[in-house]
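Issue: ligand-bound run for FE2/S2 (inorganic) cluster - logging full I/O for the record.

Environment: standard queue, default settings, no custom constraints.

Inputs:
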Amino acid sequence: MFTKIGQTQEESVRVWFEGCEMTVGKGLSVAAALLGEGITHFRNTPVTAAERGPFCMMGVCFDCLLVIDGQANLQACMVEVSEGMCIERQCGAADPELDPALAATANRGETTP
Ligand code: FES
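Outputs:
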C-alpha cells in the first residue's frame, strides 16, 4: 500500500508491534513506521469495534490511537519510534488500569477523549 521514496541507507531501530519484532527507520513516526510495514489497523472504536487507522498524519483525526509502552491514547502520528518500543492496538476505550492518567481522570468523574 505504501512505498518508501528516496530511500537511503538509514539508521534503524527495533520495535515490537503486537509482540512481533520489526526493524523500522529511525526518526519515523510510529504511524509512518507501521504503515511502511503494511499495518493499517491501529485501533477499534469503542461502540462498534470498527477498525481505524491513520488518516491525517498530523495529530487531528485521532484515528491512529495506540498503546505505546503501556500508555494508552497516544497518537501514533505524533510519536517518534525508539529502540525497544512496545506497541499494541487500542481496542475500544482505553483501559484506565493501563494508563494512570486515565485512572485519575475516571476517579474524578471526568470524561476522556
Ligand atoms: S493520523 Fe490523525 S491524529 Fe494521527
